[in-house]
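Write out the 3D structure for:
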Amino acid sequence: MDFSSLISLQDVLDIVAVSVVVYWILLLIRGTRALQMVFGLVVLGGGYFLAQAAELTTFGWILENFLGSIVIVIVILFQDEIRRALALVGSNPLTGSNPGEQRHLIEELVKTATALASKRIGALIVIERSIGLKNYIEKGTAIEGTVSKDLLLSIFMPFSPIHDGAVIISGGRIAAAQCFLPLTANPRLEKVLGTRHRAALGLTEETDAVVLVLSEETGKISTACEGKLYSRLESEELKRVLERMLASDEGQQTSNWWERIKVVLSSRKKSDA
């Protein structure tokens, strides 16, 4: 039998497309609480077929009505994962940064973090990457200034009227201050983590931004990226971490949309680890 006559090019493309979608879904749920929810849905589906086989009329009717709305149930249960995946697909695949500007940005951030940590002044600094943060920028106080240690220190000094909230850096410039970020809902976080750390994780769970956190209680420096927190960093270590997170030539900041999708989808697994 000639199988080539049974399988057309459209069939092959259809199989590839479905395989890619299934692969993305597996990346999305692997190692997260979403996997448990998927398992629960599978159990309910199995229960429905068992109820039909055993002729359990009432139980089967309940499961049939529930599974009849499975699309709505999936959207509700996995709304965070779906939102992040769609945001990533719609982001600009050509986004990149000038290496010289990036080095200057990292240097100023390291100097700022070191100075703030020595004085135990709290701060929250967000570096926008491929997914835009305009929604948060518009709700803050517009700055539109060059990134510098002096400007950042003046913003976060306790006597400054705009020291509360986060500073967002967009396009290599300070776009806004006094921006408020979403808090993470991860129940596995340590109780000692304050609002700044929870806000940093909350934003990085929804976007691909990098967030720099300064604790006023301990004077420690932390960074958050892809829903994961890197704590107790010294200045040299902070520089290396930022270079790795923001690098475009080494593939750490993935300008290719396919790679960025895998990074963001897999961040759910990291944030729950």
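Confidence is low (pLDDT under 50) at residues 248-273.
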